[in-house]
Amino acid sequence: MARAGGKLILLGEHAVVYGVPAIAAGLDRGAEASARPAAEPRLVVGDVAASPDDGSDLGRAFGAVIAELRAPAAEVELRVEIPAGCGLGASAAMAVAVARALQPDATRDAILAAAHAWESVFHGNPSGVDTAAAAFGGCIWFVRGQPPVALKVGAPLPFAIGIAGPPASTKEMVESVARLRQRRPQVFEKSLEGIRSLVQNAKLCIEAGDVVGLGKLLDLNQMLLSGLHVSNEGIERACQIARESGALGAKLTGAGGGGCVIALADDPQSVLAAWRNHGVDGFAAVVTESRT
Ligand code: MEV
User: Whole-model pTM?
Assistant: First the structure.
């Protein structure tokens, strides 16, 4: 059985598409895939079956992975453990798990290239941060077009993760940010520079185990993301509830427009309880260094 985890983007989403560094972390839950030889390639996810030439995005993504790996025909069964479209990297986890199932001996670079081909079908212009986090796990420093670098994590980072809104399309959110960039290039560049300096400072906090400092940077990153119009009422409310229940900082994670919020907290359970009282489901995860 091949596995891959989902991801959290701690800081730098959207800006990473334009070359600003991002910090991301792998999640234990993600996707699991198994492959067996077959006459024709087929991908089965629950009740849905897809093949490379059936015209569906899932089929095309599967076909792109097979082509990139030059893998022989196989039937792949895929089980997904995280909700799609919520910023937790479900698509990247699926891509990496499928690639690993098709070719268990492939190098990590080959798996990343295949997963990137899958992501390009769904997202159009992916930076690669999601697939890098899915393939590496731990906590990574990611710059588009460069190999991810594992970060030293000075103290474990306990997060509460809340599903603050309905799923949103990463492709549409990335496109809306691209339109904003065209409309207001100077303001956009200022935001990118602001995010760049937050990410650089966050790296220092993570390495030094300064969770209080990191929390403040998460809040500031959320402010700049709101300025890019990728936040919404549900996300702002979930961040507010988290802060009021003791979180050191909170922000959306991933593309925004809905989906998940992350809250760094000494006691993630009290944040989760406060969210539950307001109808927000969630779970806890601790970010540590990569084990590979
Ligand atoms: C999506 O998880 C992260 C974005 O920055 C898009 C990307 O990096 O490809 C919004």
Answer: 0.96
